[in-house]
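INFO batch 0412 | record 1 of 1 | parsing
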Amino acid sequence: MCRLTLTLILIGAAEFFTSGIVHAQVETQRVFLLVANAGMMDPTFSKTVVLAVRPDDGGPIGVILNRPSAVELRSLFPDRADFANRRDLVFLGGPVEPDALLFAFRSPRKPPNGLFVADDIYLSGFSEVLAELLKHPENAGQQRFFIGFSGWAAGQLEDEIARGGWYVLRFDAKAVFDMNPLTMYEEMLKRATVPRIEATRGIDLARAVPR
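INFO prediction complete | emitting tokens
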């Protein structure tokens, strides 16, 4: 991977985080996990688990949770001392803005610029938020870094779900920070396809109600 400056790597994602969306409650349909159908042929999303969030306007955005790269975070910024000891592997978050660095993290306080996910979890792509995270390497286990992200136009994801491309699961914070990314897909696919006794008539796919 070529060397990327902090300014260039952050600017691509900035427009998605300027609204500072924060909600008092976690809305079930606002944040969810997407699990690719086993038959999905699109190599971009084949065998992936995606954290997806619906902003107040526009289509959903998210990051692929189970595609770690071989690139360490520190190698992106070799001249910065605050990155020197960060051996975190950077994940491939999706096909949109592949030069943009995004990060998911836990924070007891609302960050100055970030997209609220659920509970104390946020997504951001801003340098001031990143600088604050780097001051707390002891929290590295509750921080994940992604190159690029995933995004859908309004109605696009709903159409993909309706055509059977994705299973939709309720958000699980363990998928973001704790699950092994190498075995996550199989585990989530099993969770998504286990037989259920439930009414299916009348489900509004446009709402994509998570399991």
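INFO post-check: The first helix runs from residue 6 to 11.
INFO record closed
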